[in-house]
Amino acid sequence: MFSNIGLPEILIILLIVLILFGAKRIPEVAGSLGKGINEFKRNMSEAQRAITEPARDETRSIGAEREVPRPVETAAEEEARQPKRLLS
After folding, report:
1. Are 18 and 27 contacting, i.e. CB atoms less than 8 angstroms apart?
2. CA distance 84 to 75
3. C-alpha to C-alpha distance for 33 and 11, rounded to whole angstroms
4. Is residue 59 within 8 Å of 52, Cβ to Cβ?
């Protein structure tokens, strides 16, 4: 998208910013722009975390519900597994 922006275009943009805000306000505007970008990034990461955490918890609860119970052994199967006593 911005692959065709070169040095002349950047200089024109800087000249327009200088004309609009003046030399004294440029550091102030740049600082507030940086703070705004930082706050935007922080809010985006919080929103992403708010979306992914419930989804992660949901998959954990689904995984817990999926556990297949072991089959119940009948008394006959249990007796068959135990060694037989010769002298009872």
Report:
1. no
2. 15
3. 19
4. no
Query: Which residue has 């200088």 as its token pair?
Result: 18
Tokens of 24: 């004294």
Residue whose C-alpha is closest to residue 11's, from 19, 3, 68, 55: 19
Return averaged pLDDT per consecutive 10 residues of the chain, 88 residues in all. 81 90 87 95 94 75 61 68 66
Mind giving me the DSSP string for 21-84?
H-TTTHHHHHHHHHHHHHHHHHHHHHHHHHHHHHHHHHHHHHHHHTPPPPPPPPHHHHHHHSPP
Predicted TM-score (pTM) of the model is 0.46
